[in-house]
Amino acid sequence: MKLPKSFFHCYPVYKSDSDYFSTDSGAPDLKEVEKLLGYKFKDKALLEKAFTHASVADVAAGGCESYERLEYVGDAVLNMLLARALYLWYPDLSPGWLTQLRAANVDTEKLARVAVKHRLYTYLRHHRGGKIDDQIEEFRKEMEKHPLHSMGLIKPPKVLADIVESLIGAISMDCGFRLKKLWPIVKMLLEPIISPETMKLRPKAELQELCQKKRWKMRYHGGLEDGEINVFVEDHLVGKASYSRSMKKEVAINHAAKDALMHLKTTTFVSSET
């Protein structure tokens, strides 16, 4: 399948465009993205750039630059739009709660879910056959276990969140940062938006809060060399989780904390000071 003409001014011509997309059908039609957004780009190059990974960007050879600069813009716009919306929706929430709520709605996992839900990853131009495709597929499977948000229990591919931010950045640049145009699109993409009622603490934070309330001393021990993370409360082993190079340490810690919480909630724990 040949590249559509609209790609020529931005993308260099490769011998096989099917080697650069997350589907086997070759270059997808970016008009489908415009249809999803309900927005038609005046500058098509911005939309094309929003889905160009650094691995295939080649500005020196006359190709398109990667999405990274648009990602920078989108990150700032997204945080501003959510901050404004949450401020207006929840007049009684403290700044601390508003900050936590905004963070939950714009973190890497939340945005990665947006990319999967709307199949935005299928428009990503990158070198196929590498880690990106495997990571996306693994994340899609893990998502099924956590319908809204895993709260730190799975490792989302950053590239998925990147293209959501770069797409928002592209729309922002194209529409001249008009809030009335931007917000309906961003709101649609983020649905369902995490609310105070649906937001949960990450297991690590929940365990810390419980231990502070009970005045228990808590610590984590372990690492890659041990192959696991252990949780000790008052020097008692109360939880553990496997840890390998394929996962972030923070994810392993959250799994260990979750295990500890289940243990503490289902058994009678007696502090060493009792």
From TrEMBL:
The keyword Hydrolase applies. One of its GO terms (cellular component) is nucleus. Its cofactor is Mn(2+); Mg(2+). Pfam families: Ribonuclease_3. The keyword RNA-binding applies. SMART domains: RIBOc. One of its GO terms (biological process) is siRNA processing. Residues 30-176 form the RNase III domain. Gene3D superfamilies: 3.30.160.20, Ribonuclease III domain. One of its GO terms (molecular function) is RNA binding. Keywords: Endonuclease, Hydrolase, Magnesium, Metal-binding, Nuclease, RNA-binding. PANTHER family: DICER-RELATED, RNASE II-LIKE 1. This is RNase III domain-containing protein. It comes from Kalanchoe fedtschenkoi (Lavender scallops).
